[in-house]
Amino acid sequence: MTTLSRFEIHQPQSVAEASQMLGHYGDDGAIYAGGTELLLAMRHRALSYSHLIDLKVIPGLNAIETRDGVIEIGAACTHRAIERSALVREKQPGLAELESQVANIRVRATGTLGGNLCFAEPHSDPATMLLVLDAKVRIESAGGAREIPIDKLIAGAYANHLAPGEVLTRIIVPSAKPNHRAAYMKFQIHERPTLGLGLWLETPDRGRTFTAARVAVGCVCPFPSRASAAEELLTGSRAEVEKRLPEAAALIADGAELIDDHEGSAEYKRHLIGVFLRRTFLKALAGDSLFKPGREI
Ligand SMILES: Cc1cc2nc3c(=O)[nH]c(=O)nc-3n(C[C@H](O)[C@H](O)[C@H](O)COP(=O)(O)OP(=O)(O)OC[C@H]3O[C@@H](n4cnc5c(N)ncnc54)[C@H](O)[C@@H]3O)c2cc1C
Questions:
Q1: For 55-101, how does the pLDDT look when each residue is reduced to its tens digit (9 = 90+)?
Q2: Whose CA is nearest to atom 43 of ligand 1?
Q3: How far is the CA of 235 from the centre of ligand 1 (A)?
Q4: DSSP for residue 162
Q5: 180-285 in CATH: which number?
Q6: What is the 243 CA–ligand 1 centroid distance (Å)?
Q7: Given a cut of 80, is residue 290 above it in pLDDT?
Q8: Residue 275 phi/psi, 5° resolution?
Q9: Cβ 22 under 6 angstroms from ligand 1
Q10: Tell me: the pLDDT tens digits for 15-55?
């Protein structure tokens, strides 16, 4: 059995201080949030750091707030906190539901959304849904702050676009509107999901027609991405869209760099995309999220 090498934990009082610490320790330092990925990777010698910078002690990074039609989720919020948040359940119930199905309760109680996005493990859920919700992320360092769309954070499998010294501080998610429908579904047989599919639709008439659509797929490919080529096919009348779902699924699969791995062959994943596009479409229209506002869990 492998053991962890010795390391020191540092507790900065602010993001600027965390950023300075990252600069100071260079390749020997890393942000430590829930540690569910980091400590595992260090235990298996896939990563090695002598200095971990604890994000959870920085005031405000575990807050969930709303303003101007968006929900701002602190990067150090755990999956469990997001799942249980009355604000998220009210303003974006599909995201609360997704969070309730990440991993198991032990991982959810420790692992953070920020850690999930920064680690970019290919078999992860949240980024796929955040892509279709048109989320942004706020990135800060000792030198300043910037906001970028979520797709600009993702650089590939286990890779992000953070520059040295930068910290992901907030995930900014537009609140749902009455004319929006959104749903995420995953298929999972092992410890991590085989497929995740997110769908967002704009409908002026309660699901009879669709004026805009966003669809994204993850887990079947090295990193989640939107399938813009298929989105046009998901607009029009409900009957037209239902008829075009197989064609849309084929375009999603074509654009997704499907991989053969222990979860199954690329061909199998192509099939799953077809099945889950239809299921997610029906789920989005039914609006049958587990998370109705006010429901206690
Ligand atoms: C058994 C198991 C099952 C799982 N199943 C699922 C699943 O079904 N779906 C799913 O989506 N995920 C799953 N996961 C992954 C889980 O969601 C992540 O482990 C967790 O969210 C990572 O967050 P963390 O806070 O523990 O990150 P950490 O382990 O603390 O950090 C991960 C990496 O991100 C960096 N980092 C963390 N936060 C920041 C930040 N704010 N800014 C910059 N860098 C940062 C760290 O330096 C490190 O490199 C599973 C994990 C386990 C162990």
A1: 999 999 999 999 999 999 999 999 999 999 999 999 999 999 999 99
A2: 167
A3: 35
A4: P
A5: 3.30.390.50
A6: 38
A7: no
A8: -65, -45
A9: no
A10: 999 999 999 999 999 999 999 999 999 999 999 999 999 99
3-state secondary structure of 137: strand
Measuring CA to CA, how many Å separate 227 from each of 216, 234, 243, 272?
A: 6, 11, 18, 15
Coil/strand/helix, residue 31: strand
Gap from CA of 36 to ligand 1 centroid (Å): 6
**Assigned CATH class of 64-174:** alpha beta
* Domain extent listing, the chain: 8-54, 64-174, 180-285
Closest listed residue to residue 137, CA positions, set 114, 163, 103, 112: 114
Mutate to test the pocket of ligand 1, among 37, 105, 153, 219 (most ligand atoms within 8 A of CB): 37
Tell me: domain 8-54, CATH 3.30.43.10, correct? yes
Query: In this structure, are residues 92 and 83 in contact, taking their beta carbons and an 8 Å threshold?
Result: no
Whether the CB of 42 sits within 6 Å of ligand 1: no
Spatial distance between the Cα atoms of 174 and 68, rounded to a whole number of angstroms: 9
pLDDT score of 3: 86
Task: Determine whether the shortest distance from the Cβ of 27 to ligand 1 is under 6 A.
Answer: no
Number of C-beta neighbours around residue 257 at 10 A: 12
Band of residue 1 on the pLDDT scale cut at 50, 70, 90: low
Instruction: Check for a shared fold between 64-174 and 180-285.
Output: no
pLDDT tens digits for 196-251?
A: 999 999 999 999 999 999 999 999 999 999 999 999 999 999 999 999 999 999 99
Contact 73 CB / ligand 1 (< 6 Å): no
Query: What 3-state class would DSSP assign to 184?
Result: strand
Atom 27 in ligand 1: which residue has the minimum CA distance?
115
Ligand 1 atom nearest to 39, measured from its CA: 29
Amino acid letter, residue 26: G
- pTM assigned to the model: 0.96
